[in-house]
Design a protein that fits this description.
- The protein has helices spanning 24-27, 32-53, 86-89, 116-123, 138-142, 158-163, 204-221, 235-244, 268-283, 286-299, 304-316, 320-333, 338-350, 354-365, 372-384, 388-401, 406-417, 425-438, 445-455, 459-472, 477-490, 493-506, 511-524, 528-540, 548-561, 565-588, and strands at residues 62-65, 93-96, 152-156, 168-172, 176-180, 185-188.
- It is 56% helix and 5% strand.
- α9 packs antiparallel against α10, α10 packs antiparallel against α11 (304-316) and α14 packs antiparallel against α15 (372-384).
- It is mainly alpha-helical.
- A four-stranded antiparallel β-sheet has the order 3-4-5-6.
- It has a domain at 509-589: Serine Threonine Protein Phosphatase 5, Tetratricopeptide repeat (Alpha Horseshoe).
- The protein is globular, with a radius of gyration of 30 Å.
Length: 589
């Protein structure tokens, strides 16, 4: 409120599948896309109200923009990203400033999102770095038409990277728009905003001039471009991209050099069929999706994304062996596709075949595919297989390749925290601090810090951290259970009882929570029959050998309280036997 700030607010809701919340779902029953836009608008209204209430509007620059639109069937494209037509490219750009002389102005000039950064920097009085490719729009605020001679550039490499078809690039000067494709296209946007009439052969001079200018722009913009290997993206970014729907299989573009690539316009039917099949398969109708994708593969077996998509649908249908074969075919087309390798490992893991998962990944890496993400995957496999010490060198190798992997730091910290005895708290602290410095919002990071504070007997801090973890992950039964344990150590029995009940609400099959609720009833000297039922429920859920003795000893105490000495002695003997068995198992480890 009293200092300078910069905030990026990303509202992702108007994306397929369109599922607006109420009341927008009912209001836009027959057009859910508009419902999602209306919902997003309501959230922007909340932001506007917040700024007003806190007196932040008077000295604020606000930029409203969209990354793309949705085609909604125009040119047969249902969403976005495949073509470069105006339905997806023409987006709003609204700049609100505190200066009255700049308010209420509109411009029809063609500009691009690349211009937002230099515009904001100039408005804030910050020098624009020379390498920035966009141009500030501030001159256009005072002299309409200042940007009239500029080209706006767009591109999509989605068809190329995912299907092995041609990429598409476009350049427009306000009136005319050129699309560079295997069959080039030229449109007069003033007369033909729907881009229906290709003027390449009717406006040859415009086509030649615009083509020449576009090539100059592309060469200049790409002169210092970095080569990005998608397989080197860090673990956190991959997880976010996957959540946004941007992770798939990528065709090896080096194999496409010099080849005549298919025009995406001729392949839109195949693309739509594959997209519908994937959505159908992941949404609950796998058999029809599998049939459709296999028909597409029969027609064109060289679409890596089709094999990858088929693997995903088969995985969802729990047909893991078939899914593995599909992912392997995807890898044949794109040998360095670590995403498919990760999915194969996940298939083996889902079948409980951890050794095969580890061997497959190691064999793949031995072929020269060095990827820190795969070391992280191997570490995670070992943790899930209850072999945390084997995970340590894998997480360390992940960090050797990617020192900025907060996930690997967090994974190592969790292992050090849970080592026998008091763990290795100093090393856990070191890795948790490193993870926090890299990504303080990493999932489970706060939970692990809470565990560390608990082991350090800093119970008030631990309780606060568990409560914050629960705010972010309200179904985290482990956080509720650990919170109950902290409350027990602090002598706050009422809060312990409440946390245990919420543990069971979040995970009804967590046996130890039943034991400790029964223990509270026993301590209070009440509800003995209910407590007996709770303990028996916990035992039915097959607790870990180390926890089973507690259940038997609780039953021994409870039956003693209700006067059933025979059962009390029986469960006391069972408790002693379970205790001995747990001790023997611990020694074997």
């Amino acid at each position: 409120k009293n200092g300078k700030f910069f905030a990026w607010i990303h509202l992702y809701d108007p994306h397929t599948p369109y599922a607006p919340p109420e009341p927008f779902k009912s209001e836009y029953l027959h057009n859910p896309y508009l419902g999602e836009i209306a919902y997003t608008d309501s959230q922007l209204a909340r932001l506007w109200d917040f700024l007003d209430r806190n007196g932040l509007r008077d000295n604020l620059f606000l930029v409203f923009a969209a990354d793309h639109g949705e085609s909604l069937g125009e040119h047969q494209e249902t969403t976005h990203g495949f073509f470069v037509y105006q339905a997806a490219l023409h987006v709003p750009l609204i700049i609100a400033t505190p200066f009255p002389e700049l308010q209420g102005r509109t411009s029809s000039e063609t500009v691009g999102l690349v211009d937002v950064m230099p515009t904001v920097l100039e408005m804030a009085g910050i020098p624009v770095p020379a390498e920035v490719q966009g141009k500030s729009l501030v001159p256009s605020f005072f002299r309409p038409g200042a940007a009239a001679d500029r080209l706006a550039y767009s591109e999509t490499f989605y068809p190329r990277y995912h299907y092995g078809w041609s990429d598409l690039r476009s350049a427009q000067d306000g009136r005319f728009k050129l699309i560079l494709a295997p069959v080039p296209e030229l449109y007069d946007l003033d007369r033909d905003p729907g881009e229906e009439k290709n003027l390449v052969y009717l406006e040859k001079k415009v086509f030649e001039d615009l083509s020449a200018r576009a090539q100059v722009l592309i060469e200049q913009a790409g002169r210092n471009a970095l080569e990005v290997d998608v397989n080197k993206v860090d673990e956190e970014t991959r997880e976010k991209l996957a959540a946004l729907g941007y992770i798939g299989s990528f065709t090896d573009s080096s194999k496409l050099q010099g080849k005549r690539l298919a025009n995406p316009k001729d392949k839109i039917g195949v693309f739509n069929e594959l997209s519908r099949a994937r959505e159908s398969g992941l949404g609950g109708d796998p058999e029809e999706a599998i049939k459709t994708i296999r028909a597409i593969i029969a027609e064109d077996p060289n679409i890596a994304d089709a094999h990858f998509g088929l693997g995903n649908v088969l995985y969802k249908a729990r047909r893991f062996e078939e899914a593995i074969e599909s992912f392997k075919k995807s890898i044949e087309l794109k040998p360095d596709d670590s995403f498919a390798v990760i999915n194969i490992a996940n298939c083996y893991q889902a079948m409980g075949r951890y050794d095969e998962a580890e061997k497959y990944v190691l064999d793949y890496m031995a072929k020269g595919f060095d990827d820190s993400q795969l070391f992280f995957l191997l570490g995670t496999l070992m943790v899930n297989h209850k072999e945390p010490e084997k995970a340590v060198p894998y997480f360390e190798k992940c960090l050797a390749g990617n020192p900025q992997s907060a996930s690997a730091h967090n994974g190592l910290a969790a292992i050090y925290l849970n080592r026998s005895g008091d763990g290795d708290l100093a090393r856990a602290e070191e890795h948790l601090s490193a993870a926090s410095a890299i990504n303080p919002t990493l999932q489970s990071l706060r939970y692990n810090i809470a565990q560390l504070r608990e082991k350090q007997n800093r119970l008030t801090e631990a309780a606060g951290l568990y409560l914050r973890e629960i705010q972010d992950a309200p179904k985290s039964f482990k956080a509720f259970y650990n919170l109950s344990r902290v409350y027990r150590l602090m002598g706050r029995e009422d809060e312990e009882f409440d946390a245990l009940q919420k543990t069971i609400e979040a995970e009804p099959e967590f046996p130890v929570a039943y034991f400790y609720i029964a223990r509270i009833h026993l301590r209070r000297g009440q509800n003995f029959e209910e407590a007996i039922a709770l303990v028996k429920k916990g035992i039915e859920l097959k607790p870990a050998p180390a926890d089973l003795p507690l259940g038997y000893f609780l039953l021994a105490d409870l039956y003693n309280r209700v006067g059933d000495n025979a059962r009390s002695e029986e469960y006391a003997r069972k408790g002693q036997a379970a205790l001995a068995a747990a001790a023997a198992a611990s020694k074997q480890k």
